[in-house]
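Hello,

I think I submitted the thiamine diphosphate job twice by accident. Can you confirm which output corresponds to this input? Input:
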Amino acid sequence: MATAYSPTNFVNPLSINTRSHDKPLFDPLKTTTSFLGSTHKLRPTSLQFNQPDTHRRSAVVAVSDVVKEKKVKSSSNLLITKEEGLELYEDMILGRAFEDMCAQMYYRGKMFGFVHLYNGQEAVSTGFIRLLKKEDSVVSTYRDHVHALSKGVPACEVMSELFGRTTGCCRGQGGSMHMFSKEHNLLGGFAFIGEGIPVATGAAFSSKYRREVLKEADCDHVTLAFFGDGTCNNGQFFECLNMAALWKLPIVFVVENNLWAIGMSHLRATSDPQIYKKGPAFGMPGVHVDGMDVLKVREVAQEAIGRARRGEGPTLVECETYRFRGHSLADPDELRDPDEKARYAARDPITALKKHLIESKLASEAELKAIEKKIEEVVEDAVEFADASPHPARSQLLENVFADPKGFGIGPDGRYRCEDPKFTEGTAHV
Ligand SMILES: Cc1ncc(C[n+]2csc(CCOP(=O)(O)OP(=O)(O)O)c2C)c(N)n1
Ligand SMILES: [Mg+2]
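Support: Only one job matched these inputs. Its output is below.
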């Protein structure tokens, strides 16, 4: 059974108008009101006021043929079957329940280092990643647990990784920010912002190389690169957009614009806050989508992934989203305006999907409750599994370390420090 999803204010995102002579969607020089729902006021600096208006207006002058074509078609495709709806719901519930459990475990001292949770952003991970094939790749950031789960890495392996145990997806050596799974083509979480974007671009290049040079005709693999708004001010972002467009790589750049980079408002940090506009500047479509609505995200994702798979090149997608918790579990989250937080909390993507599934008679309360119950057990089992798993042996600590451990220097006894049996003491719980 399929149903049409017709939320109010829906605009086909691929029909976004980016031609220079059209009325700009947002003009930072003309307004100090909110953008993307942020209550943080844009305070133009004197530098911004000194810039001629034309500089601002000419930011995007080109739009790819694909975008133009989509504008003509402009048909909404928010149809889902019951099966698809339940799958999306389950994946989002898993992401939320897993992260809530991480918070509990972190405060109980079961995890170490920084832990960044994904609460509030689930529609992006689910909307995109659940459309992928196993062979497709995902490159994440330090906010990576839920991307790993959506890509199919079992919850027990992700939890064990967070506990630093040998049964974790990186044998306990990666931790929260470095989820990796060769089997599931999860090519890593990355602690340095922007670091994953070139890795994703390289993965997309390898797919194209295999298909076109090595003549592996069935290699139509797509790579998704996820990263935040703050990261879009880094050079790697621009360099990789350029290469991906130049070589027509099968990649989708997915910006999770949650309006904040730790405590820095997106509006204060970037010259033009509409990130999607940077796509056409490089010759690829740029799309903005409501990242709190999994069906809208999924629709845009379908287009962008399909385009990449057909060999038509990259797409830049900006998902407007919000994180419901602090930057990391060590962040007291005192900087963001409570009104802004409340506004986005009211748009919780899971509550919205639940409402839609029930109102459109795709699922009953009881069916959704059963999913919640099932996931609760999955997450509890993951904790039990992780807690019962062994810690890595001390000898594992220097495995896969590419730097020569001798580089750590010579100790007072004249021997390399790494040869001292106490070398790793205090640096890790092994
Ligand atoms: C190269 C680099 N510079 C600075 C940092 C410190 N840092 C950690 S998170 C972060 C903000 C990133 O914000 P955004 O890209 O919006 O991602 P979000 O945390 O909102 O998901 C910064 C600057 C870093 N990790 N790497
Ligand atoms: Mg951000």
